[in-house]
Amino acid sequence: MVLNTDPQKVQHKPHWTPGETPIESFGDQNKDDIYYREGHPDVAGIDANDESSWNYRKLVIVGDMHVGKTALLLTFDQGDFGGGYHPTVHNQKSKLVIDGKLVALDMFDTVSDGHYDRLRPLSYPGAHILLVAFSVDARYTFDNVIENWMPEILHFCKDVPFILVGTKTDLRHEEKTSRKPVGQGGEALVTTEEGQELAKQIGAYMYLECSVERDEGVKEVFLAASRIALHGLSLKDKESKKGKGCVVL
């Protein structure tokens, strides 16, 4: 199977309309949103021990190697990435309270090595939200959002909302990046404005930035993703969604 990788043809118009959701502004997170690493959430009038009280949602994160996908998941789930190399974690589970509702979020990491291209789509079925990550200090990972990841998303998950995420923003504050220049003569770090423009071009639900090193914006990424995943099912009649979503061919 050959996917379309022509950037001129990757013009995605989202099937959802952000204004139709209860989410009018993601700039300020709901102060009542809570993430629990241990124990059960305590929400008035809701029995956390009752299976039917939970809204189960699936998140999948994609992006080039070394953009920090695993670090992002582990920092949110464990509170501290700890540095160093960590293998792909594949699956993490989190418990959250979003807009007064219990959310059980399954977070699926993915491997970007070319050897896994045929296996990676097995992670997509049932996804409610995708995170498409690139590193601001490696422009090729930014370019590959259109070159590689959008064709794959449009093929397997064309009806699933996604957030574009710029990682490693702490490197903007360093005099030198941790990488050697990836282009001839060196290449400038990806700016916030470039990320916002790309998000509009590809039809992302929104653009967010974060730094695992400084623990900045990490929680906001997952709370926003959880809210979109939670309310996304109400954007369209559930019956009309049958047969849609992520597919494996």
Automatic annotation (TrEMBL):
Gene3D superfamilies: P-loop containing nucleotide triphosphate hydrolases (3.40.50.300). This is Uncharacterized protein. It comes from the Eukaryota. GO terms for biological process: small GTPase-mediated signal transduction. Residues 1-31 are annotated as: Disordered. It is found in: Membrane. GO terms for cellular component: membrane. Keywords: GTP-binding, Membrane, Methylation, Nucleotide-binding. The keyword GTP-binding applies. It comes from Periconia digitata. GO terms for molecular function: GTP binding; GTPase activity.
